[in-house]
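Anyone up for a design puzzle?
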């Protein structure tokens, strides 16, 4: 399970080991303090995405936890980001600016 923490990072918990934190998996590079931005994992389990408080969409490599790219997705908080399960090259985001966007 990937969770957003209030100290500007994503942390991972192993749900099969009593929700034990996986310390090797720590994703940094987004500003989320005070916001409940929802992260998501790509259907092929290779990438992690999350919105942030600055309106950015952030993409990391799952294996290395390296930040790959970040771009401005919304004016204001990008509160949720999700991969389309059947069209894996597409991501949907929503923001506090009232917009829902489809990215390819």
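Challenge accepted. My sequence:
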């Amino acid at each position: 399970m990937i969770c957003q923490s209030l100290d500007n990072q994503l942390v991972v918990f192993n749900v099969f080991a009593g929700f034990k934190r996986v310390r090797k998996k720590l994703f940094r590079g987004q500003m989320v303090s005070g916001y409940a931005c929802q992260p998501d994992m790509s259907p092929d389990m290779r990438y992690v995405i999350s919105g942030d408080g600055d309106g950015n969409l952030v993409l990391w490599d799952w294996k290395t936890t390296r930040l790959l790219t970040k771009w401005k997705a919304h004016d204001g908080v990008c509160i949720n980001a999700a991969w389309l399960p059947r069209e894996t090259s597409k991501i949907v985001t929503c923001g506090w600016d009232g917009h829902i966007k489809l990215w390819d």
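A detail worth pointing out: Residues 2-103 form a domain with the Lipocalin fold (CATH 2.40.128).
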